[in-house]
UniProtKB/TrEMBL annotation:
Native species: Cryomyces minteri
GO MF annotation terms: sulfite transmembrane transporter activity
Pfam family, one: SLAC1
Keyword Transmembrane (UniProt): yes
Annotated protein name in UniProt: Uncharacterized protein
Extent of Basic and acidic residues compositional bias: 238-251, 297-306
Length: 313
């Protein structure tokens, strides 16, 4: 998905905010603004793409068995986006508390502490609500993906199964941050369960990749490519003879049409008569009067010129 790099970059910037603030507050604000812009653009694109993807699932069947891991891909941008927006809200709340900054004042005097605390808490809770909104959306796609894999399990391991790890890990990371921020044991337990699942899947993928890829050398092939190639070869063998005949017939027709066009190529005069070029007349007569052994008769230039004068008269 093209929007994932935008959200991943925003999440990386939001993670660096506390460390940048310790070094340079101005640099931290710049990173905050850029990260929020990237997050906004990425989330808009994600929801547009997911709408099209959801319509595709309704209109058509599930992906092939070897590509079912791709059903987990929507978890990646939603999980990363939830993590990023909460990190940015936490930093913004701390910044408001420490600096006493108010956007409506060019030279801000110290604001009352209750107002600063209320504004900071509002920013913090806004990030929590957006996090919950995105995690609810991601949970729907998680249930759908798990149900798809349980309904039609892949036949064998393929390199595309690494798609389980990053999306599910992003989902678990967002729940971990939310549970730690709200100090909720249920959210922490759910995050821990997802983290354990991701670790087990990662170990399984790493082991199978090492075994099939490095040891046996039979892993790195695109899922479903073999069936597609087999069908293409069968179609090519079945239609090769007919296609060859069709190409020959088409070439013959084009050749005949071109010859007829050359024979009929005339130069019309103002008085309604027409003349043909001497070389054209010679070519036509050679084609009509050629011997069976392939030697063509040459037309005399004088006869050609005489025929041309007779036509003009």
């Amino acid at each position: 998905m093209t929007s994932v790099p935008l959200i991943v970059t925003a999440a990386a910037g939001s993670t660096l905010l506390p460390y940048l603030d310790a070094a340079s507050q101005r640099a931290a604000i710049v990173v905050l603004v850029v990260s929020f812009l990237l997050w906004s653009l990425g989330m808009c694109q994600v929801h547009l793409i997911l709408a099209v993807y959801f319509w595709r699932l309704i209109s058509h069947k599930l992906p092939p068995q070897q590509l079912l891991a791709s059903c987990f891909l929507p978890l990646a941008p939603l999980g990363q986006g939830a993590y990023a927006i909460q990190q940015m809200s936490i930093f913004l709340a701390n910044y408001l508390k420490s600096s006493g900054y108010a956007p409506t004042q060019s030279q801000p005097p110290p604001l009352p502490q209750p107002i600063l605390l209320a504004t900071a808490e509002a920013m913090h809770w806004l990030g929590i609500l957006l996090n919950l909104f995105l995690l609810a959306h991601a949970s729907f796609w998680l249930v759908q993906a798990v149900a798809a894999v349980a309904y039609s399990r892949p036949k064998s391991f393929n390199i595309g199964m690494w798609s389980f790890t990053f999306p599910w890990g992003s989902y678990a990371n967002a729940w971990s941050l939310l549970g730690r921020d709200l100090r909720n044991s249920g959210m922490r337990g759910w995050a821990a369960a997802n983290i354990v699942i991701v670790i087990l899947i990662w170990l399984f993928c790493a082991g199978m990749t090492s075994w099939l890829g490095f040891w046996k050398g039979s892993l790195f092939s695109a899922p479903g490519l073999e069936e597609w190639l087999d069908e293409g070869e069968q179609d090519g063998q079945g239609d090769g003879h007919e296609n060859g005949k069709g190409r020959e017939n088409g070439a013959t027709k084009r050749k005949k049409k071109g010859t007829q066009g050359e024979v009929n190529e005339k130069k019309h005069n103002a008085d309604g008569t027409y003349t043909m070029d001497a070389s054209r007349v010679g070519d036509v007569e050679n084609g009509m009067n050629g011997h069976a052994n392939g030697n063509d008769r040459q037309v005399d230039d004088k006869d050609s010129m005489r025929a041309r004068r007779n036509g003009n008269s």
